[in-house]
Amino acid sequence: MTMTDHVADVPADPDRKFTEKYCVEIYETRTDMGQAVASDVAKHMRKVAREKGNVRMVFAAAPSQSEMLATLVAMPDLPWDKVTAFHMDDYIGLAADAPQRFGNWLETHLFSMIPSATIHRIPAEGEAEEICQSYSGLLGAEPIDIVCLGIGVNGHIAFNDPPVADFDDPALVRVVDLDEVCRQQQVDDDCFDDLDAVPQRAITLTIPAIMAGEALFCTVPGARKRAAVKAALEGPVSTDCPASILRTHPNCTIYLDREAAPHG
User: How many CA atoms lie within 13 A of 217 on its CB side?
Assistant: First the structure.
């Protein structure tokens, strides 16, 4: 494993007075990576539960999170009874029981294994704008302590694709159109049979909602993510690569396996 701490007090963009301070950890395999993320998330869960008495967490639903979640739910004595859990995004237009729905994916990989936690799912049915308003109220009721996320092949975080990403979005949750690169990733991840089957719209936490989390744990395995990781870590802080904003968060760790690392 190699670790890089990056601290820069030079603005990443002359029009945005960003200070960059983030940590990158690189592991030989995605299994090693997932175990390391889970260990760090668990430590932070225990710390927050001890200090605050409750832990508010946001989870991404994607194959990139599988090893981390499997390790996390297998850990003994985590304070799940003190956890309020949210998920980051979900499709519009899929049946409530569709296995591709992110809420259902998280039910299988996480929620069903932590029955003592309070879980707020993005509803599968209802008027999309009303769902956004309701979920925003739940999300914004108290600060979010932990965000577990990934980076998409187009550099998205949650479903904030480059065409719609807004670093200054006034909303916490909104409806977005998905770009074709993002939709193709869902096919390449074996979630859908073909592009036509992937919904074109979704509900997502916005970038400010994600960045408001006290601690961000970003898990990114695989060679197909390498270009996005390189742009996020080495390019300008820009909505052309929404994940680049993570460099400005005061407590963000980005975990990579060797295949995803920009320089191998």
Answer: 27
User: Which residue segment(s) compose the domain that 48 sits in?
Assistant: 2-8+18-257
d(CA 222, CA 237): 23
Segment 229-251 mean pLDDT = 97
CA 251 to chain centre: 14
Q: How far apart are CA 158 and CA 163, in angstroms?
A: 13
Give the SS3 label for residue 205.
Answer: strand
Residue 264 lies in a domain: no
- One-letter amino acid for residue 201 of the chain: R
State how far the alpha carbon of 185 is from the alpha carbons of 28, 87, 229, in Å: 24, 19, 15
Beta-carbon contacts of residue 191 (< 8 Å; ≥ 6 apart):
100, 198
Mapped onto helix, strand or coil, the DSSP state of residue 262 is coil
The candidate with the shortest Cα–Cα distance to 62, out of 151, 163, 183, 122, is 151
Mean pLDDT across 93-120: 96
CA–CA separation, 73 and 67 (whole Å): 10
Residues 39-70 have pLDDT tens digits of 999 999 999 999 999 999 999 999 999 999 99
**Burial label, 250 (beta-carbon count in 10 A; 0-12, 13-18, 19+):** exposed
Domain count, the chain: 1
- Closest of 33, 73, 47, 88 to residue 212, by C-alpha: 88
Q: What integer pLDDT is reported at residue 159 of this predicted model?
A: 96
Residue 125 lies in a domain: yes
Q: Which two tokens stand for residue 50?
A: 């001890």
Question: How high is the mean pLDDT of the chain?
Answer: 92
**How deeply is 97 buried, as exposed, middle or buried, from its count of CB atoms within 10 A (0-12, 13-18, 19+)?**
exposed
| Token representation of residue 246 | 């993570």
Residue carrying the six token digits 């990443």: 12
